[in-house]
């Protein structure tokens, strides 16, 4: 068994999309691509992914439509929901190591972290990452916050204070009406600071927020127990993002 790759979509600004990107990347790679995934929810202020998993479980019990979608996927893929570990930052890495040492075959471990670099547990986790992806949007508040976060990690990299192997900025919540040269100008600034940017840009689409419903009979995109619905994938660039990630991780 090879060592799993450790990945975190991470930034200190809420609303940048790190939790949604974590869930969707994990679900797509696990249920569609067949990789063995472990998701670690360390965001102790809210444990958003744990709450999402619980909502999924509740829907299986109370929504016939959602239960059918889940059952159909289980029958087709033979994959039970991917494992989800909930742990405080200071305890997470030890628990992950125990899971790995127990002989569980894992390709990628995704970490959902609190939005701070002032927590020793968070810093210790970030130091172990193979890849940190910093979601950023063309919004002044998100842009400044995400850039400050990335520059802090860049400082650790240049001073040898971290073992992070690679870090990339990721354009998220991209408005199709915005001029593409605006992003080119921002990326030029990133490059001046020595920051690399992923090629994939994630559009601002409501699909990324579509979960199951107790009352609506509709396709599901964001879920921890099944993949994004194929009919909703077009235009989301989720498959392009995961392909680029796999290429970076050499998987």
From TrEMBL:
Start and end residues of each CobQ/CobB/MinD/ParA nucleotide binding domain: 8-211
Domain of life: Bacteria
Residues of the signal peptide: none
Protein name as it appears in the record: ParA family protein
């Amino acid at each position: 068994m090879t060592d799993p790759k450790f990945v975190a979509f991470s930034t200190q600004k809420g609303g940048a999309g790190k939790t949604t990107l974590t869930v969707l990347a994990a679900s797509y790679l696990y249920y569609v691509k067949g990789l063995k995934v472990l998701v670690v929810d360390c965001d102790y202020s809210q444990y958003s992914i744990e709450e999402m998993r619980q909502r999924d479980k509740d829907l299986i019990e109370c929504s016939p439509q959602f239960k059918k979608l889940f059952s159909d996927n289980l029958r087709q893929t033979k994959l039970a929901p991917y494992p989800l570990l909930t742990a405080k930052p200071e305890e997470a890495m030890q628990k992950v190591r125990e899971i790995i040492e127990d002989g569980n075959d894992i390709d990628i471990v995704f970490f959902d972290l609190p939005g701070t670099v002032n927590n020793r547990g968070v810093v210790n986790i970030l130091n172990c990452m193979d890849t940190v992806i910093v979601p950023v949007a063309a919004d002044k508040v998100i842009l400044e916050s995400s850039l400050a976060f990335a520059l802090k990690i860049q400082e650790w990299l240049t001073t040898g204070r971290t073992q992070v192997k690679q870090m990339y900025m990721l354009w998220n919540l991209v408005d199709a009406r915005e001029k593409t040269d605006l992003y080119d100008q921002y990326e030029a600034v990133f490059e001046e600071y020595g920051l690399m940017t992923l090629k994939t840009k994630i559009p601002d689409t409501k699909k990324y927020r579509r979960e199951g419903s107790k009352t609506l009979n509709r396709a599901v995109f964001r879920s921890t127990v099944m993949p994004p619905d194929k009919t909703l994938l077009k235009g989301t660039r989720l498959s392009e993002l995961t392909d680029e990630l796999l290429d970076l991780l050499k998987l």
